[in-house]
Amino acid sequence: MSYKSITSILVIFMLAVTSCQDEFLTRTPTNAISANAALASVENMQLVLNGIHRGMFSQSQTIFPGGNTNIANDHWFVPQGDNLTGGIIHSANANNLGWRDNMQWNHHTVPTSLSNEIMWYHRYNIILHANLLINGIAESDFVGPEVQEILGQAYTYRAFAYLSLVQHFARGYLIGNPSSDPGVPLLFATEPPYTSKPRSTVQEIYDQIGLDLDAAITAFATGTGRTGSGASAKSQLNENVAHGLKARWALSKGDWAQAASSAVAARAGFPLMNEADWLSGFNSNSLSEVIWGSNVITTETTFFRSYFYLICNTFNGSQNRSNPKIADRRIVDAIPATDFRSKAFLPDAPNTNNSAANGKGGFANNTNPLYPTTVEWNAAIASIKAQYGITSGHNLHPYMSVKHLQQLPGTIEPDDIIYMRSAEMYLIEAEAEAMQGNIGPAQTALAALVDTRDTGFDETIYNTQQLLMDEIKFQRRVELWGEGFGYTDHIRWDEGIDHAADGGSGASQVLYQNAYQVEKPSLNNDWIFKIPQAEINANPNLGGSDQN
């Protein structure tokens, strides 16, 4: 794949969402097209914004020149956080789309890796188009609630993109020296030559994120609010999303008071799910506590490039048929029987895969006393597959996840991608209060969430900061399993990866290789993603010394 630099990708995408004539795209030189057409009317600006929404889940080659069909943007980036840190565990050797290489830390540590390149260019694509809208509105005479709504979303998108970039391509705020650590380039231009600055410091990027989120919240206050209803409406950003990003931003930099207050604001109006909804598959924005997610439309389906292809054990693709995704057995075994979330994992599922990484596939290797005969073994297999719509060609494995289930199980339909839930906001509030030493408020926030999941939960036993933090970490790993928070959690907590500790996670050391045990982020620079080599080669403001 080839790229010019982050500054070369604006106009083609902008035109793809504002023009309906393909020949206009192919006949007009990229560097000769003005952005004026996108800013000619409020309706055209809305089309640009719709393009950013669509770009969150489209295959990358539809977003910018040189994109690649193997990565469909946040279909990949969301589960990557748990793929890298061992929350999602591979049970067999399958490398479709490079997902095993990613798990083995052979992607983000390589300057020429596809996953790094796509993340870098997709996030800057968002920034470029947010800049187009922010600057265009500032220079126009457009006014009114519709304009403010577009402006609020543009600021929120820019903050989202910079937070994603600085958390992956720079040292963690709490474990480094943010005032001097190199962050990522700031970019504000919307006209050629789209000049970016050299790498700003981590602190400068964080400061800009804060400014953008405050500007977004101000704009949303006089905006229209989301238009439409249902799952598609939640593809739009709103004030709750801005508050939710502010809560994540503040948590990642240790601004505990801000994190707590923003988390409370973010979850307003998004009640927690009941048991039936929680166990329904996490496949739709329509779930009550989803604050933000991509509603994946059928005309833009990604099929085998989707989030559910990478994580869902009912998806009818080889990544899961041959390699059921399992959860860390140390976490699953610790979930109380009174907690309905235990039903999202199947610790007693038969291991039907003769190629399982642990070498224990097939009835001949069965040691589960629940299945002393092949009749009982086969009956268990049939029961699980019937209950969850798993096809006959799928393998099963102990501790496999059934948290993510397709709306049409056993198909290749991708379903929605959930980015933000109110449950996360309760956990942010609890952690932020605990880190301030506010034991009572932390207990209250934690109980507000966990009481709805576990009828036996007693928050009062977590009566010190350490006990609270241990429980909050456990609850995040259960509640948010597979939703991609493992990477940023490990960096914030400065925790390494150890699949061997405390009886073992269930991962295979032979399969996981160097990712089986990884030193904590403060001692291991491999936690920082490599900047794409193509960017360093093309960007005059970056050189070899800028590589992480």
Show the helix and strand layout.
Blueprint: H1 10-18, H2 22-27, H3 42-55, H4 74-85, E1 88-90, H5 99-103, H6 114-139, H7 145-168, E2 182-185, E3 199-201, H8 202-221, H9 230-233, H10 239-252, H11 256-267, H12 275-278, E4 290-294, H13 307-311, H14 318-321, E5 325-327, H15 329-332, E6 345-346, H16 374-388, E7 400-401, E8 417-421, H17 422-435, H18 439-450, H19 465-479, H20 486-493, E9 497-498, H21 509-512, E10 517-518, H22 533-538
Antiparallel strand pairs: 1-5, 2-3, 4-8, 6-7, 9-10
Summarize the structure.
This protein has helices spanning 10-18, 22-27, 42-55, 74-85, 99-103, 114-139, 145-168, 202-221, 230-233, 239-252, 256-267, 275-278, 307-311, 318-321, 329-332, 374-388, 422-435, 439-450, 465-479, 486-493, 509-512, 533-538, and strands spanning 88-90, 182-185, 199-201, 290-294, 325-327, 345-346, 400-401, 417-421, 497-498, 517-518.
Structure description:
With 548 residues, the chain is mainly alpha-helical. Helix content is 43%, strand content 6%. It has 22 helices and ten strands. The strands form five sheets. It has a two-stranded antiparallel sheet with strand order 1-5. Helix 3 (42-55) packs antiparallel against helix 6. The longest helix has 26 residues, at 114-139. The chain is globular, with a radius of gyration of 23 Å. The two termini are 21 Å apart. The model is unreliable at 10-33 (pLDDT under 50).
